[in-house]
């Protein structure tokens, strides 16, 4: 019963509410002119499916499955890519916090460091005027987690994945490190690997921060429109568009 209630609620609140309103408009138009009603129905259905976990999980999962986690690490430095940060927000030992995906990547890097003893290079700058500098925040948090200062490298100028790769390549050349283990979200890994290849780096992929479960079960919630599903769908489409741009313009 609880799942039925959740399903109904998803059409009472946004974004499901907008689907209901659009369907009402389709019915109203149908009585006047069927051609625009059919066009609007098609747009409404496209919007609806893009809002459902069924579609968003399939899209993001197809990205996350391209690179499995390796059983054996082969590298001399752990390179972590940023994924956004807030500024001025309170933290245990300072101000500024990494967003969820970036924090998950950092946590994975710390665990890999403890397994291997390899240094960590965090790449990411201040993307917007009101966001935090990702690498500077990561450095503070890594020190707070007990990572030795000499094992931390930061690249705090990058504004996108292409710059992550180019600027990381410059630092690795300066330090004599040549075998990066690339840590980023599973959905982001394909695009990141393309940019690192274009920058002349041969990286070992270590994806983390997964969104879609490995096993997808059909249930009413998979057909419920949700803000999270819209965000995930947009994220997946952004990655596919980014991969295309990396192949065409890098």
UniProtKB/TrEMBL annotation:
Residue spans crossing the bilayer: 7-30, 36-60
Residue intervals of the DUF218 domain: 76-242
A Pfam family this chain is assigned to: DUF218
Superkingdom of origin organism: Bacteria
Keywords: Membrane, Transmembrane, Transmembrane helix
Protein name, UniProt field: DUF218 domain-containing protein
